[in-house]
Amino acid sequence: MPPGRRATSGPLPCSGLVFVRSRLVGRVLIAVLVAALAAVLAVGPRPGLAGTSPYPAGYGPAADRLFSPFRVPAEALHEPLYLVLNVAACRLYVYRDGSLVRTYPTTVGRPGEPTPLGRFWIISKRVNPTWYPPDRPPVPPGPSNPLGTRWMGFTWWGHGFHGTNTPWLIGRPGSAGCVRLYNEDAEELFEMVRIGTPGVGLYEPVELADHGPEAGLVLGLHLDIYSRAGDYGAFVADRLALAGRELPPEVLEALVEAVFRYRAVVWDTVSPVTLDGRPLASDIVSVGQPPDDEPRVWVRAFGEHLGLPVGWDAAGGRPTLAGRPVPGCAFVGGRAYARIGDLAEAAGLPLDWTFQVSLPAAGEDLVRRALAITRPFVVYVDGMPLAARALRLESGLHLPVRAVAAALGLPVHWDAERRAVLVAGCEVAASVVDGASYLLLDDFLAFLEGRLAVTVTVTEDGVFIRR
What we know:
Helix content: 10-25%
Strand content: 25-35%
Mean pLDDT: 83
Shape: globular
CATH class of the largest domain: Mainly Beta
Strand order of the largest sheet: 13-14-15-18-19-24-23
Number of helices: 8
CATH superfamily of the largest domain: L,D-transpeptidase catalytic domain-like
Largest sheet: 7 strands, antiparallel
CATH architecture of the largest domain: Beta Barrel
Number of strands: 37
CATH topology of the largest domain: L,D-transpeptidase catalytic domain-like
Structural class: alpha+beta
Low-confidence stretches: 1-63
């Protein structure tokens, strides 16, 4: 909602003041309301009523482990859909079937009107809501409506997830306590949630997924937007100590500096990176808020991997590949990191990238991912190119299941109970990459054997499938 505005009951009309002529009747009503409120608080939070504790059990400074979006909350393992809002990160994480499926940037409450924390449930949904401010006429749906195109209420006193007419505030505090999303994101979330979908609101400037001393970590640092942490560097060190982690002072200083420069930094030393199926010796750094937080890799490692000379443009203050400057670099810890598109431009190569996300292994709760950088690989079925591309991952060439099956006239659906992809009613060993299912080419051919006669040709120009 715009600064200074708050709908008292979401998009529903405000009831205004109720004038009670009799003082006795008024006192009786107040006593009844106080008793009812006490009864509600005595038995704990209800759907849509955020908990009174700013840090629910398992989260916050007193926790024995830190929150990370890559660590699936225990509650999400028992719910078809579960929401986690990290107010400090200005991000909403959506878990489905025990895995992280979406990350949405948000606008949260500004200092002085913070977004409430604790357990919540979705209690109302509205398409193209009307906004009812308390001090002026209702605002109908349209470009002037601060609720955007969708409303999903999550507290009884008027907080909700909703669209926005101020998209430039996404990724920072700026609302009166509600959670704003880009309209397209609000519309997508609206289709996923139902009345009763649970979630939790946290305030955690430090997110950590620790894969062990030998494996590495995924560390997300975000600005302390409500000024609750005190000395930020010391706060980060204390939070890491909860997990038994300690970073070299120069590394910690570089990361903290990056937070103040970019508002957020994610340092990933766990997830493997491949370029055309071969390992790339680089960690992954993301800075800023979505959609500007695309993964970045170390420029020097990228250039050496391709045999391109890496230099330095002193005038522009940026690295070069084969004499061409690399634009848009982020500098963290003395290293230059660049987005895949900017590296492709400097190297003169067409490149795509995607994250391959796997479900937690048995007995684990950590979501694992791998960054695959690959040259575009077009799939043709009976001479027609598909919009979805094939991926050349370290394990081999993978085909987009849904797109290829549809082109071949084979039905595809997701079996939530079995957590499996079914093609023509039969389970296939698909991998989930960026929310889409992919199947190794050899496995695809083995599945089609006896069902459909096809010929497959793989060239540098793409994959050609003919019936």
